[in-house]
Amino acid sequence: MNWAQYIKTHGLLEWPYPIRYGEETTVPSDVLILGGGIAGCWAAISAARMGQNVVLVEKGATLKSGSGGSGCDHWLNTPHPGSSITAEELVQWELDMTGGYTNALSRYIAARESYDTLLELEKMGGVIRDVHDDFKGAPFRDEETKFLFAYDYKSRVHFRVRGSTFKGSLFKECKKLGVKILDRIMATGLLTVDGKPGSRVIGATGFHCRTGEFLIFRAKAVVNGLSRHQRNWCFSTEIRGNANFRPTQIVGDGHAMSWRAGAEFTMMEKSLPTSFGSPHAFQPYSHGNALNTWVPCSLVDADGKEIPWVDRDGKILETVGERCMPAPGQKFMGERTPVHEHKRPEPIPDLEDRIRKGEFRLPLYADLSRMPEHERRAIWGHMVGEEGKTRIPVHVYYTEAGFDPTKDLLQSYLFLGSDPMRGSIRPQDRTGGEIGDAGGLVTDWNLMTNLEGYFAAGDALFAANYHYHAATTGRYAGRKAAEYAKKSACPGLNRKQVDSEKSRVYKPLENREEIEWKELNAAACRIMQNYCGEFKNDELLDLALISIKELQQYDSDRISVDNPHKLMRTLEVYNILTCNEMIVLASMARKADSPQLGFKRLDHMSEDPSHWKKWIVLKNLDDRISSREMPLDFWKPLAENYERHG
Hints:
Blueprint: H1 3-10, E1 24-28, E2 31-34, H2 38-49, E3 54-57, E4 74-75, H3 87-98, H4 104-124, E5 148-149, E6 159-160, H5 166-176, E7 180-182, E8 185-192, E9 201-208, E10 214-218, E11 221-224, H6 253-261, E12 265-266, E13 272-273, E14 299-300, E15 309-310, E16 316-317, E17 346-347, H7 351-356, E18 365-366, H8 373-379, H9 383-386, H10 391-400, E19 410-411, E20 430-431, E21 440-441, E22 454-456, H11 467-486, H12 495-506, H13 517-531, H14 538-555, H15 564-589, E23 614-621, E24 624-631, H16 638-645
Parallel strand pairs: 1-10, 2-3, 2-11, 3-7, 11-22
Antiparallel strand pairs: 4-6, 5-6, 8-9, 9-10, 12-21, 12-23, 13-20, 14-18, 15-16, 15-17, 18-19, 23-24
């Protein structure tokens, strides 16, 4: 039944909750956590275990919200007693993969604390081992510990886990520790000493997405566990149910409020062509491929002819088992990387040429039936099923529809234009935050930003990625925030700042109600596609900034807002516009091409010259934008800095 049919049958729905616009509630705490995702829950648990009064604020429902709320199938980069790989080596493969453009500071914290975090999660109820002996005797299982490993069966630093059990376990632990969880609350702004941007953070504001009630949060320390920016270049809800790789309500709320408060950001100029968020691709992991969750899947062509796999040196691999073993002389493999030292085996890289020559015929298919039983069940049932956003829409629905991996093929859309990871796409259809490393907050080794008392974890950090990283940095930031809160008082709030934010939040209720919030989001995307797309120069970026300002000034107050939910959606789009502004300003500041950042300046043709291999750090103080430069290796030395602070 579509919406029109529903209205004809049932009539228009009345808003089911009491409306309390303007009513205020003040909530005090020692440590305030913004965001109830993986990073936020871990931060709350860590701070509460140190005896702090913790309040957690979440826009959705903490039980299942966030990028990792529905699960994860693997837990990366984890040194442990059964492996000889070090944290330094694991960070290095990521630095090699990105040409140095990653946050080695937070990645090192994650690698150092990943195994302890995993064991701690198990005590809460998360399933991290093969407890029912489903894979007894499999080459990726350690028989003594019952750990399961992915991608590299020799070095064993990437764990297979039952991530669907994680969020519920974290939620219960928060409740057990007395964390006050406030769901359906959208955080809107940070509160600072004397109400000044750039000063110490002492709380936040928010409103209830169902009642419209305004909340004032007071705190000695605040942790930003909110996620990254999305919906900047691509936005589609009606055409495709899954409009983003991460949940659609993740738009960069934390980025926008931090920017308004004077926090420092870097890497915001990064964007890459992608079909994520566009109507052109299918649900990730819902089709046959040989990447990530589907490794080491067998692929066949339309005639059933198997596609060969090769190791990093181009040697043809004869067995499925060899696809997860290092090549001769290779110490370990990264989760994914094109860099030779840590490159994984893959289907033949010249497949397209061989299709053109007639050796193979499209379409391609995943053929799990040809694989050893343990590998087939590891992919279909464990990896697909535990990966975020696959358990219900892929594993459950496909199984109910009759898909049987022991005999059925699953079509791959590689070379057909609809593969979300490798499909052909328009260069202006880009992502800044949906996948991979993205721009975000800059912190010190305590994960505190340049704003005193304001910490960041997970996807709030620049160059963040992966479930294990969100968990470990959340755990670390919560600990550091608690230490800070124990030594700090909570200054009084500046009422003028509170009133100003309250006025901003409710202003959309006065709108002319001419368009829907989706139209403003679509217009914002078109600006970014046109003027901050694949190719950039000063004039295009000037036009982008002018156009964003015009949307903010002339079109933002045209959106129809007739209930608290639409108010939330409207404020989200306002935050998207703020993030777009940050992206454009960062793009203006970088004056050279950078392949690693997906960045092309047609008026500065030199590609990644040595003097431009650096971070551009921006901040906003009362609409005065300032920038500074930071060396790519600002985090050195890793071990010494961690030991000093960790």
